[in-house]
Design a protein that fits this description.
By secondary structure, this protein is mostly beta strands. It contains three helices and 23 strands.
């Protein structure tokens, strides 16, 4: 594969890492127990995540909406639906010796464009995502990055609770409980109705976890002070469809003002662990200990 950053520059050969392959318009990252599928044709989204031999995300064949996507916050800047350039437009692919870049088109309404870099750590079942939001306009823009991950409504979502109260905006609230500073949402205990459900709040330690059956999934990111959360939003957000068919596990970064030409970087690590039958049925305290271990692993080995 050859890459060229300037049309007048000499082409330079690039050898992608051995965990990257391409076929049928998709990009595959595979190492150890982890196989990640990226779809460049739909905003460079994560389309599939197979861990320990099982699909873990909601894929296009299972559900619409699907996969993992990046948006800007607050949502009041764009309403609904999300801008095509950020949510569904084709992204340009750039191979590097360390991973894969995807570059999106400029959205004229918001004045920004996205880039996404994906790579796999060599020390664990860990996906590293480096997002970039570029101000392509001639004016300053104020926004926060926002990652939305769609999962089956199974098991439990949990995270260290921060300073702010839960709020739900225009949605029906979700039933969270608090135990030793940890907020818990149990999908089996939620009384779903025909309405859509959402709860938003502040986190404390910069991680958000999901436990279901035989696996644990932990997102790791930079902690956001409550005063720097986008207006009307939360550092941690959880959405559930009214029929209880799926959830969206979400987190946001700092509210930041970008001058023309500036770029906001934001790194998120996804870390995974298999749970034995004993682990999966253990007390919540054990899952919290394991989630904190995985978060430390990600922070101690940030690339």
């Amino acid at each position: 594969m050859t890459q060229c950053s300037d049309k007048n520059a000499e082409l330079v050969a690039v050898t992608p890492p051995d965990f990257v392959s391409m076929a049928d318009g998709r990009i595959y990252l595979e190492r150890g127990s982890l196989r990640v599928t990226i779809n460049p044709g739909v905003a460079g989204r994560i389309e599939s995540l197979v861990y320990a031999g099982r699909e873990r995300l909601l894929t296009p064949a299972q559900n619409n909406p699907w996969g993992n996507v990046l948006w800007t916050s607050p949502q009041s800047d764009w309403g609904w639906p999300p801008p095509e350039a950020l949510n569904s437009a084709p992204y340009r692919v750039e191979l590097t010796s360390k991973g894969i870049y995807l570059h999106g088109p400029h959205d004229s309404q918001l004045g920004v464009a996205f880039s996404k870099f994906y790579t796999l750590a060599d020390d664990s079942d860990r996906l590293i995502i480096q997002y970039q939001i570029h101000n392509k306009s001639d004016a300053e823009v104020t926004l926060a990055p926002w990652e939305v991950t769609r999962l089956p409504a199974q098991g439990q979502v949990f995270f260290p609770k921060g300073e702010t109260d839960f709020h739900s905006g225009e949605f029906s609230p979700l039933n969270f409980t608090l135990d030793n500073g940890i907020a818990w949402f149990n999908t089996a205990a939620q009384n779903f109705t025909a309405e859509h459900h959402k709860s938003m709040t502040d986190g404390e330690e910069g991680w958000l976890a999901y436990q279901a059956e035989d696996w644990l999934f932990v997102k790791v990111f930079e902690k956001v002070p409550a005063e720097l959360i986008a207006p009307g939003e939360g550092e941690i957000e959880l959405y559930a469809k009214g029929d209880g068919s799926y959830i969206e596990m979400e987190q946001q970064g700092y509210l930041t003002t970008l001058m023309p030409g500036e770029t906001l970087p934001w790194q998120v690590s996804w870390v995974f662990a298999s749970l034995s039958e004993t682990d999966a049925s253990s007390h919540r305290e054990g899952w919290v200990v394991r989630a904190r271990q995985l978060a430390r692993l990600a922070r101690n080995n940030e690339d």
